[in-house]
Amino acid sequence: MRSKFSESKIIAGLIGLLAIEAALLLLHLGIFTFDGMRTTSGEAVAGQIVKSHNQLRRRGINSLVWEKSTNDEVVYFHDSILTLAQSTATLRIQQTEISLSENTLVTIEPQHEREHGEIRLKFVKGNLQARNPYQATRIDGEAWTVDVHQGSEVEFRQVGEGDYELQVKKGEATFKSDNGESTVKSSELLRIDAENAKKMEMDKELVWETAPAERVYAHSDKVEVPLHWKGKAEQLVVQSLGQPEVAMPVPEGKLELPVGQHRLYLREEGRTSPALNVQVWRAPVIHLLRPLPRNRAAVGEKVEFVWMQIPGVQEFRLVTKGGSHPLDVKVKGNVTSATFAEPQDLEWSIYGRDAEGFDIPPLYSNPLFIRENPLAAPKLKSPSLRKPAQSLDGASYWWRLDHWLLPQAYAAESSENVATFAWEPVEGADQYTIEISETADFRQPLVIRTLSKAQFMWRGFAAKVYYWRVAGGTKSGRLGVFSEPAEVDFQAMVDGQEVDGVSLRQVKKEKSSEETSAKAAKSTAELQAKETQITVEKAIVERAVVVPEKPPEFGHFVGWSPRYISAVLNAKEKVKSKLSGGTLAALTVESPIVIDEQRLWKVDLSYAQAKFKPNPPEDYLYQKDLSWQDLRGSALYFKSRWGYGFVMQQSLLVKREGDETIQGVSSFGGGPSVAAMLRGGRWLYNGSFSVLASQSGVGVQSAHSMRWNIYRGFSVGGGVQGELTSTSPMSFVGSAFGLAGFEF
């Protein structure tokens, strides 16, 4: 009794350890946090995000993750700030206001001890504007520095690979490099390339007139913008973010620009016009939900307009074209209504306006017909269902029992889907219009037919979901209201079934009698052979059931062990990384060497090849894939169910490779281990606890697995493994793995 009680306590304790390991493995799911969310990184607060539009990202010095950021968030010194495509941001660093255009990356540098109060920014790419009425600001590049004097306002932008421009809008700025320094005053522009810095004067007589909006939304890859100016110019210079600068002859009246951020200058003999900023952004599609295209409504009837809500759009405008009284109504939400006092044909669309006041044009409009006393909407017939026939693969509607028994007899036959759509007649209507669409918006129907009867037969269509609706009418031109759209799923219907007024049947193509007889004879012979085989197999199975099989003894095991790995890794130089993912390239080998009934040596070896890819890529913008080979071996001496021995392993150690990336190197370690091995019937449990010393530090590791012998030595199972290492803060690596292999 004592032995059984002791063993049950051991099993209960092992189950508790399994629960602890599983809880540790949930660190990456966000249910538990190992070192807490970052409220402070040890750095001083630098300022805050005043305003952001779309996708703004922030990364701390000790992290590889680009976190999403929004308005009013605090930023710290050493933080990197990144705006993605079609995004902008405004920061307030103490009293200095920094505006970032799209695809701009800067780092907030700590203040210099000898220059108290100066704001320092490391410029990597993009375009920024700085306005500092109370403090000086310093912008650092790889080989140059721009000192923005107190009370000045400047714009600094990248115009090519290693080429920049500094424009002073107010006050003064000083540019410094190995080649010397230059002071740039108000209304001057400094062109900076790899070796030289050249000033250009702003020509007051060369100015833009009736410029396009600073932000233009487009539904295509390019958009045409009008250009009007006064003064004499030799060339037009186009600076597109991330692209080489382009100089061209002055165009006449318009210019085609691709999606992106652009700056246009008119230049002549060292003189330049002010910049014309044009952002071409991809317009979001505002889908129109109701009324559907070609809908009909009665004069004086309240018509409700509904469209899809779009993130980032602060205001909408309902605009109608055609008719006697066009509408242009501002709406805060995505629903409004209107009534029309007279018959008319019109089109309605929705314009958007983003948070910064720029218009978003519609992609399409919906026709709408207003009529006096339109005909009533037809009523679809009530559903009439029949019991579905059995199907072998779920892709056909009707399989007879003899088709299942004699599948080859009909394999060569083809069938054509035929559906009948029906509805109840409408009083006063002598014709009907039916529309069938693959999408619920009916923008591009597959079928638009006018019929004289209250039904429609459709042939040769694919088996999938469709939407249909019907409206009555007269040959004299009177229109009726459409019925509410109905959905029909032909994949779920069987031959002869009727749903919402739609019935389906399959028409088979006839075969010659000789061909049919030959196929039937062949199928009958195959069926007889199949029945004979089933009888023989049944006898074998019955005989096998009578003779019980003795469970095999556990021995050597070789198996496949796919696993999911989750890691929180920390290292020196303020490196913190979180990695997770699955790997199929994993192998486990166990080899017991029996001494006697109570004693044995057990040698284990496990190998896993993991490749971590940044996911999502926008959170790890500069990080390359990391390859990780996890190799673990142990030699343990067991007496009864308890054992002890030594463990060696090779795992991953992270090191900083640059400001934006880390690299992974192999870390070797080992240490003593204690283990337990319990067996009973067809199952085997292995558990161990180890103390490890490696290049990463000193840590502890615990592993647990359970497997069952299924049949003739084939075993399946699974387990968990976790490791804590004394980095600062602690690192954790956990994995859950499966087992499938053979014992012999």
Descriptive account of the structure:
With 744 residues, the chain is mainly β. Strand 2 and strand 3 (67-69) form a beta hairpin.
In short:
This protein is mostly beta strands. It contains three helices and 58 strands.
Q: How many beta-strand runs?
A: 58
Q: Main sheet?
A: 15 strands, mixed
Q: What structural class is derived from the secondary structure elements?
A: mainly beta
Strand content range = over 45%
- Rounded average pLDDT: 79
Radius of gyration, whole Å: 37 Å
**Approximate helicity band:** under 10%
Uncertain runs are: 1-5, 27-41, 383-414, 509-518, 531-552
- Calculate the terminal CA-CA distance, rounded to whole Å: 33 Å
* Total helical elements: 3
Name the shape in a single word.
flat
Features of the shown structure:
744 residues, mainly beta, 15-stranded mixed β-sheet, ten-stranded antiparallel beta barrel, 58 strands, flat, disordered N terminus
Topology:
Blueprint: H1 2-25, E1 45-53, E2 56-59, E3 67-69, E4 74-76, E5 80-83, E6 88-93, E7 96-100, E8 104-109, E9 119-125, E10 127-132, E11 137-140, E12 144-148, E13 152-160, E14 163-170, E15 172-177, E16 180-185, E17 188-192, E18 197-202, E19 207-209, E20 215-218, E21 222-226, E22 228-230, E23 235-240, E24 246-249, E25 254-258, E26 260-268, E27 271-272, E28 276-282, E29 288-290, E30 295-298, E31 303-307, E32 313-321, E33 328-331, E34 335-338, E35 344-354, E36 359-360, E37 366-371, H2 401-405, E38 415-422, E39 431-437, E40 447-451, E41 455-459, E42 465-473, E43 479-482, E44 486-489, E45 498-499, E46 502-508, H3 513-546, E47 557-560, E48 563-571, E49 575-583, E50 586-594, E51 599-612, E52 626-639, E53 642-656, E54 662-680, E55 683-694, E56 697-711, E57 714-725, E58 731-743
Parallel strand pairs: 9-11, 18-27, 20-28, 30-37
Antiparallel strand pairs: 1-4, 1-6, 2-3, 2-5, 5-8, 6-7, 7-10, 8-9, 10-13, 11-12, 12-15, 13-14, 14-17, 15-16, 17-18, 19-22, 21-25, 23-24, 23-26, 26-27, 26-28, 29-31, 31-34, 32-33, 32-35, 35-36, 35-37, 38-41, 38-46, 39-40, 39-42, 42-43, 42-44, 45-46, 47-50, 47-58, 48-49, 48-58, 50-51, 51-52, ...
